[in-house]
Amino acid sequence: MKLHVQKQKKIILLSLGIGTILMLAKFVAYFVTSSNAILTDAAESIVNVLASSFAFYSIYLAARPRDLNHPYGHGKVEFFSAFVEGSLILLAGIIIIFKSSYNLFIPNEIHMIVDGVIIIAITGIINFWLGHYLIRQSQKFNSLTLFADGKHLQSDAYTSAGLVAGLLLIHFTGIGYLDSLLSIILGLYIVFNGYKLIRKSVGGLMDESDFEVVEEVITILNNNRHKSWIDVHNLRTQRYGTDLHIDCHLTLPYYFDLTRVHEEVSGLDKLVNQSAKIQTEFFIHADPCLPQCCHYCRMSDCPVRSEPKRKDIVWNTINVTRNHKHFI
């Protein structure tokens, strides 16, 4: 775990270092051209640097071990990091829109556009590569912080691509107000990306269920189902940074002794952790079966069956997440 944290810190420091250099390059492009649209891109780069700085701290904090006050660890700080980054993006977009709207009526004189285009194009290519790298690493380490930073850098790269196209259009047409109009469009795009990031972080802070993980777990259980696992219900997920907590109820034959119940519960836990893409902390509550379970129970050699098996219930997100046995 410590090795993973050190690697994540190095990745964020790489993002922070490159982001600082690109931010300075964009401000150079602004001073060269006086383009309002380039200033928009440079202002967003300030957010990139601030967000990477906070992301570095959040990864450090998320890696701290559990303690008395934080029995589930400190991983939730990653959602807070994403919230801060999304809020900064949103604020930058709003400021950009207001400034650009003002400059529609009082435009700036733009010059040396080609030089500015070259600088912005280079920064955009680097940002896209860096964002792609961070997203790929976020999947490897299951880190929302790296994912948020990567998405932000990629959105910045798309902004730069649109900016390059707009600046070339201004250069060839000579229509100056297109600079502010382009800046407003980019500002709206930035606001949208900030909202999406805030929405994702709030969902995590409020323990919104991750249905992608739920479906993955259900697929594993369906493909490796033991006949003694009569049903699984009340399955819930909570994410704490790189850690995933899952709890559920597992219905087993009521005549199993405690040792057999422990073996079945441990088998389910081991199965999911070995097969899933993410390591989980699994809390499984064992429920005894009832006579009403007999009509879908797969225990062919059950000594207490009250009626024959009549149907086969396939587990899905509806019956597995509901808080009752499948016959109700």
How does this model look, in words?
With 328 residues, the protein is mainly alpha-helical. It has 2 domains: 2-205, Cation efflux protein transmembrane domain (Alpha-lytic protease prodomain-like); 211-321, Cation efflux protein, cytoplasmic domain (Alpha-Beta Plaits). The protein has helices at 2-33, 36-62, 77-105, 113-141, 144-173, 178-205, 211-223, 258-275, 317-321; strands at 231-240, 243-252, 280-288. Strands 1-2-3 form a 3-stranded mixed beta sheet. Helix 1 runs antiparallel to helix 4 (113-141), helix 3 (77-105) runs antiparallel to helix 6 (178-205) and helix 5 (144-173) runs antiparallel to helix 6 (178-205). The model has no long low-confidence stretch (mean pLDDT 81).
